[in-house]
Amino acid sequence: MKTYPHLSSPIRLGSVEIKNRMFMAPMDTGFGNTSWGGFTPEGIEYFARRAEGGFGLIYSGGTNADCVVDGCDGILNHPAEFIEQGKRLNARMERYGAKMFIQLSMNVGRNGGLKTPSPVPTLGDPSVTTKALTLDEIHTKVEEMGRAAKLCKEAGFPGVDVHALHWGHLLDSFALGFMNHREDEYGGSLSNRLRICKEIVEVIKRECGRDYPVTIRLALKSYMKDYNKASFDGSEEVGRTPEEAVEIAKLLESYGYDGLSVDAGTLDAFYYAMPPSYVPAGFMLDMAAKVKAAISPCSAAGGRRTRI
Ligand SMILES: Cc1cc2nc3c(=O)[nH]c(=O)nc-3n(C[C@H](O)[C@H](O)[C@H](O)COP(=O)(O)O)c2cc1C
Prior knowledge:
With 308 residues, the protein is α/β, with parallel strands linked by helices. It has helices spanning 41-53, 79-96, 135-154, 170-175, 190-193, 195-208, 242-255, 270-273, 285-294; strands at 11-13, 16-18, 23-24, 57-64, 99-105, 121-122, 125-129, 159-165, 214-219, 224-226, 229-230, 259-263, 298-300. The chain has one domain: TIM Barrel. It is globular. The structure holds flavin mononucleotide.
């Protein structure tokens, strides 16, 4: 039988101690949330039961931060209700010694036909091309992440997660060279393509204090042959390679992120993003181990199915 000697020991994410290494990955289940990302009484109970079950850290599902550029509803439109619900939820977390981070979403970009760094074919319908974000819109999105994180702190959440350099969502399409054709400071070199991630952690720390933990999600390999074409065996890759992921992880840590949660895939290669049972168990653990060796802390999800 395999043993996991560190699984029950505490770990720090910035200033916050998590009681063990069992983290519940972010899942927008469509259950227990209000239409704008708040928590219904059933949603609070759902997370409380997970805390009772023993998770040290629980991530919420993706929660809209920016309501301005993409014109959607989100927590910033309902601050008083969010604070009241958050306080009730965090009281339940405390009862079991668990911590909960809100995953703040930069939205899904081309996956929802929304604006992207530069015009690209929309997921599922290549005949429709997305519109590019203006510089003002990028700056607005970054500021809204800061305001949303501040609201999470006021609601008692001990940290936030930034959603995400994964699945071809908005931040992924900034970071992926083949999706980002901008010629200003947000395109070109890897550090330019990650500039928005740097600005996000800076604005959150400005609004919430340097000690407030901020993690970010990163897919370690895109598994894409082209737009809307998966690379099933992973040999052809127009997107992220595990080698580039290690470079990205180091840069994210240098920008001030307190931890990384890693997975794999894009919505074009959903097979790896949401691995069914016939994807080899633990297919991404070797990639995750390389990131873990370069930066710390790092949690991993995706086809783990480990039997203890
Ligand atoms: C119903 C469902 C909703 C999800 N929603 C999110 C989300 O909001 N944000 C996110 O980063 N990942 C989301 N994920 C991805 C999971 O966090 C996880 O990476 C994925 O399920 C692969 O891990 P697994 O093989 O252990 O299920 C979701 C997964 C599922 C099944």
